[in-house]
Amino acid sequence: MNRLIDQYIRSEDQRARADQVDRLATRFAERAELHDAEGSFPFDNFADLREAGYLKITVPTEYGGDELSLYDLVLLQERLAYGDGSTALSVGWHVGQILHLRTTRKWPEDVFADLCRSIVKDGTMINTFASEAATGSPSRGGMPETTAVPADGGWRITGRKTFSTLSPILDRFVVTAYIPDEQCASDFLVQRTDRVTVEETWNTLGMRATGSHDVVLDDVFAPRNMRLSSKGADDGGGWLLHIPACYMGIALAARDFALEFARTYRPNNLNEPIASLPSVQHAIGEMEIELRTARSLLYAAADRWDKETENRPSLKPELGMAKYVAVNNALKVVDLAMRIVGGASLSRKLPLERYYRDVRAGLHNPPMDNTVIQTLASAAIDETSSR
């Protein structure tokens, strides 16, 4: 019987891609302990991802990419996180945003095409830096304190961004800035120059190797055509499913570690390994319920998003619920895994304590739990009132 993680593979092509990512994940797992302990950015992992062609998996085929579906993205991101959550979450922002730009076409096509070709040719990556200390998550609607003022031929941008994942490796990125003259915010594509400083502030409980430092922009110039339109098709935010896929991968790794421990660990007061104990079997059963429930919602949401192209905006409640259930169930799975392993699970020599720390970061990735609950409530109220 295939492993649980293989449950949603539907084709030979998916099997081949999964096998390739499994090999990467195994390599990343060997490095994860050191990068976690040091809080260092895993440049070696990203060199491997570039070499494997992973950075172009969501780039349109017209620009040399693989143009994978959201379902495929979830499948691969989950497996990558099985090896190293930090690397999976980090690269997820890149491949996810390329999928988002591909489906919305909200950027000028020449700018998007140039980025895509650079990804395919040079392994370029992208991320959007929107969070700030004073405004918190941009999903909460706060106005950025970073400003963009008109200059000859473009814009001058000044400010500080927090939670800037991938900042050590990016040579270009998107920043959200407030335009005082227009009293609105806009996105700008910025090239990294000597006016951009990465301050290594990232020293956190979990996801320690994402390089999510502060980025300081000091009168950085962006050409006029690098102001990016926010217009485009509403895709419902399906690309954000790379987030719950990551935390499912971590939970699956914790589950498999606990299962192997239960099958092999036999204290001297037992004649069989602890997997024979009813209490341990009960905990394993609980892990299965949490994992299988969350993954069924996650893959169903991704599949619907791929197929119901005209219906994507109305899928936001389902997409949010998939993230809510995946992250909260992943927390329960890792906790149960640690209970099965016992006190040894606290040891830094074992990966469980890292899984425990990393998985908690999902609570602080968008959409937040209260936002999902409010979205579901509003959808239910609107449905009732429309009768």
Automatic annotation (TrEMBL):
CDD domains, alphabetized: ACAD
Cofactor(s) of this protein: FAD
Domain (Acyl-CoA oxidase/dehydrogenase middle): residue spans on this chain: 130-220
Ranges for domain Acyl-CoA dehydrogenase/oxidase N-terminal: 11-98
A GO MF term: flavin adenine dinucleotide binding
Keywords, alphabetical: FAD, Flavoprotein, Oxidoreductase
Domain annotation Acyl-CoA dehydrogenase/oxidase C-terminal: ranges: 245-361
UniProt keyword Transit peptide present: no
Similarity annotation: Belongs to the acyl-CoA dehydrogenase family.
Protein name: Acyl-CoA dehydrogenase
Organism expressing this protein natively: Cohnella terricola
